[in-house]
Each structure stands twice: as C-alpha cells, then as structure tokens.
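Following the same procedure, sequence and fold were stored together, as reproduced here.

>
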Amino acid sequence: MTSVDVLAMVLSSQGRYEQAEEMLRQTLSAMEPVLGKRHPDVLMSMRYLVIMLRCQCKYEQAKDILRQELSLSETVLGKEYLH
C-alpha cells in the first residue's frame, strides 16, 4: 500500500470520493510508466480506484478497471492464486 493509497482511504472515510479518485488516477498515471502495469503497487492502486468508483456508483468504470486489474494479476500471480 502506497502513501497515496492510504491518503485516498482517509479521504474516502471523509466522503471525499471524487478527490480520492482523482488522486489515485494521477498516481496511476505516474506509476505505470515507471513501474509497469504489473507492479504490485500499481495493481493495488487500481483496486483502490475501483473502490472509489463504486462509492460514487460509477459501476461500469469500476467493472472495466477491475477486469483489467484481474487480468494483470492473473498474469503475475497465475490463475491458481486468484481462484
């Protein structure tokens, strides 16, 4: 869990979902080119973004990101780990 993930969770607990979402999106944009999409921190931030989207009833966006994250996690960890 990165510091930004923790801050996003704090903002979420305050009901500041949009601010948390924006922060997570900016962090992902910065982390992905440096660490790669399969890095555990990137995958975790994607999961937290899904949570923020769900809190805002943005279910289609959440579903799309979750599917992407699951596919990447499956590549990294293997199907056995996720099932």
